[in-house]
Each structure stands twice: as C-alpha cells, then as structure tokens.
Batch of 2 targets.
Target 1
Amino acid sequence: MASGRGSNLRAIVSATNTGELSAVPAVLVSDHSSSGAMTYARQVQIPCFYLSQKTHPDPVELDSAITNIMHEHDVDIVVLAGYMKKIGHHLLEAFRHRIINIHPSLLPKFGGKGMYGIHVHEAVIAAGEKETGVTIHLVDEEYDEGRILAQQSVPVMDNDTPDTLATRVLATEHMLYVDTIKAIIEGRIEL
Ligand code: GRF
C-alpha cells in the first residue's frame, strides 16, 4: 500500500525481479490515483487499485473493500510503503501481525502524529541529533507503535539540511526494507 512517490515500492519490486526476494508483488492499493506508486505499478503490470474516501466515502466500506482486495489477491504480508492513511480495524484484524510499515527515524524517537515526510528530518535537525535512522515495525491501532522488527542508524552531518538528510535516510530505507522482508520470508524475523 502506498500513497506517494513509490520509491520503496520500486526497491521491493526490483528485488523480487532480481530474485533477491522470493516473493510476488500481488497487488498495490493506493489512495491517490496518480501517485508515483500507481504509475509504476501500471507500468510493470502489477494489479493496482485506487481506493480512497472519494471512491468509498464510508470508512467502514473502504476498510472492507481494501481487505477484500488483499484476500482476492492471496496476500500474505501487507507492506506499507509510504501509505499515509490509518489502517482500518477490518484490515488489522484480518492481517494481525502481518502488516509492516517503514518509518524514517529511530522509533520511538520522532514518531507519532504529524511526524511524516520532511517533518521528521526537520525535527531531527532541530533537536541537534547526531544520528537518526530507519525503523521497520508491525502495524497496530496506534501510529508508529507496533513491535519493532528492524532498525538501522544513519549519521546526521553538521551541514545537513532536511533534504540532504532525507536523501541519505531514503537510501537506507530501500536496503533495510528489502533485507527485512527477506528475513521475514526466511524465518529469521518472526511476525
Ligand atoms: C518513506 O520515507 C517512508 O519511510 C515513509 O514514507 C516515505 C515513502 O517514500 N513512511 P516512497 O513513496 O517510498 O518514496
């Protein structure tokens, strides 16, 4: 599931193409019809669905529609790659301990409401941190609070701007997401 640019989606799908990940990208759900993620999924012919408050104004119906799509495509693990909406109860129940998310900081630092995108890196620099990083975690009812599965630190340089820091962290995101999914598939990380 992805809302935006889709660079993590690309990294994961590329790893399935090279054989680094023995997994199949079954389906993409996006809440933005023209997101980079949707455009990429169409290009590489991954089944993709635009589902949002616009297509399903009732949140319960939206949640059910997303859950049904996951079942119809035999999804084992739901990977959130920059999905900006809260996950509904139905999907959480159906995929309990099988929904993972990536966050561009060392959680629990710089997580929670409002801590997304460039805001995370702005806050890290404003706090004078010398290191930040990437966290992969299970998704539960609260933002950024599920069990942590993997973390990797990234140095903060004295001359970093939020943008330069974001670029360095993103490169680590791509590697850590693929490595973590691989470890889940191979049973080295238990969900
Ligand atoms: C990443 O920074 C990820 O950590 C956060 O959203 C961003 C998504 O970027 N959850 P992209 O769409 O994968 O390029």
Target 2
Amino acid sequence: MYYLPLLDYNYGDLEPTIDAKTVEIHHSKHHQAYIDKLNQLLEKYTEFQDLELSELIQNIGKLPENIKTLVFNNAGQVYNHNLYWDSIIPKGSELDKNSELYKQIEQKFGNLTNFNQELIQLGLAQFGSGWVWLSLDEKKELILDKTSNADSPLTKNHFPLLTIDVWEHAYYLGYQNLRAKYLENIIAILDWQKILERYLIFTK
Ligand code: MN3
C-alpha cells in the first residue's frame, strides 16, 4: 500500500507564494487520487505493493503489458509529488555555502542566481504538463532536466534532488497563465537543507 505523506507544513503556510486552496487541492485531491489509483492498480500484484516508489518505477517492465503505462503514470505522479512537497518549505531554507553541493553548483552554473535562472527557463520551456528537476547523473554530476507528464529522471537512472511541478493545477488558482511568475516565486522557497541532505546521501 502507498500512502499520502503528511506535509511538514500546513496548507496555508506556503502563502503568499502558493495559496492555501491550491496546496489543499493539490495535496488532498490530486496527490491523493494518484495514490488511490496506484493502490487499486496493484491490488492483484502483491509483490509490487511494498516496493520503494523509485524501485517500482524502475521495474515497471516486469508488470503485465495492459497495466504498465497506467502504473507508470500513477506511481510517477506519486513519486514526483512526494519530492515536490519535500523540495519546498515556508520561507525557504538556505544552502550552506561551505557544502560540496554549493561548490558544485558554482562550478557548473557559475552561481546560485544563474542556476535559478536556468531552472526557470527550463520550466518555461516545458510544453504542457510536466516537471523540472535538479538531479545527479550516473557520474554524480549535477544535471538540470525537464520531463513531461509523470516522467522523471529516475527512468534514466538519475537521482532526483529537487523538483518543481509545472502542471497547471500547481499554480493556476493563484497565477492563472503566469507560469513564469510562479517559477520565480517558488525558487525562493526551495528547501536547500533538505536538498543538501539528499545530495549527501547519494554522493557518500
Ligand atoms: Mn501536481
């Protein structure tokens, strides 16, 4: 069984960046619906019910042909949303300037401001529904990425560090068509302490 993770904050705590109603619907309706659908799809496939989501997504080929795509889409959306809620925090948190991650960002993108700009540009370049990502590739190098619908860098065996949801349901109530504004605001509430924790786990 898969469960909806509790958030580390209340629905209204991300205001004014993301309004309470958007967070509530996004978490308790959209995210929950993907979880319910995933559990329902896996009802008869007990050996897949207790896998880590990343494992399930990377082993999708072992499922019967007729449900593969549906399981991929729903498991992907559960994984992506779990990471999304875990990539942001009210008011944001700062990245330790002495950390290896900070140094790698400077090396690869020049500085954090440039990094943020590239992330925004990727989010704008994503046509339709999808996600933007910072991940580690197989050489443990930082890589910025965008994916459509339920896809994620997991399918390339990359390890995702942070993601931003650019499906319209993530921002439409507060921003309408202004995805750029949503992206500009959300990068200011990224939870760099959490992102750094994930980085440290995967570069150990
Ligand atoms: Mn979403």
